[in-house]
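Bit of a strange request maybe. I'm writing a small parser for C-alpha cell strings and I need a real example to test against, not something I typed by hand. Could someone generate the C-alpha cells for this chain?
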Amino acid sequence: SFIVSKLNKKKMLRRWTGQFVGYTLTFAGFDALALNTLYNKKIVAGVGRAKGVGKESDIYHAIDFEENEIMLKINRTGRASFQQVKKRRDLLKGKFHYNVFSLAELSSKREYEVLLKLQESKLPIPKLLGRNRHIIAMNVIEGIELVKVQNLKKPLKILERVIEYAKILYHKYDLVHADLTEYNILYNEKKDSITIIDFPQAISTDHPDADLILERDFNHLFDYFRNKWFISPEVEDVVEYIVGKK
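Reply from user aminoacidic:
Good idea to test on real output. This should exercise your parser:
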C-alpha cells in the first residue's frame, strides 16, 4: 500500500523478500511509535540533536510543551550484537518469543521502575518525566562522564560520595547498581557534584550474587581511580562497609 511504501522509504519499515514479500519494523519506526505516544501525553513537544550515542542507548535533546529543555534516553539494547541479548537473559525469563524491540522495552521498563523507586530519595539520579516503550523522558543532566574529566580537584572526595551513595542504595532501597563505572557517573565541575546514571542492570540485594556484583562494580571503579588519580583503597574493606559487616 501507499502508506507501507512511504514508511519503507523513511526507513521505519524494512522490506524483505523470500518466498513472499514482507516488512519488518526498524528502530526508527519503533522510535516514532514511542515519540508519538509521549507527544500525545504532553510530555515531549519536540526532539533535537543527539547528545550521545552508545552501545545500548542514545541520548537526545528535546523540549516539553512549556519549551523547557529535557532529555530522552532511547534504549537500544540488542542493537549492536546478540551478545547483548545474552547479557540481558534475566529480562527474558518466561518469555519464549522476543526480539530486539521487546528487549529494549523491557530494559527501559526496568530502569524506569528502579528510578521511580528512587525519585523521593536525595540520591543524585535523573528526575523522571515519563516513559513509553523504550524511551525515558527525564530532566537535563549537567556534567560529563567521569572518565572524560581531566582535572578533578578532590578525587578522593568524589569517590567517598559514590561509596556513601552505594551504601544508601544498598540499605535503604535494597539495590545494587550493577554497572557502577566511570562511564555511568557524570561530574559537574561548576557545582562539584555527581549524578549516577544507567540503572537497567540494577539488582535487588536479595539476589544470590548481589555482594559479588557490588564487589565487581568497585573493583572496576577502583581500577579507574588507581590508574588516573592514584587512589587505591581496599575493595574488600569498602564492600564490607557498604553491606554493613563492619
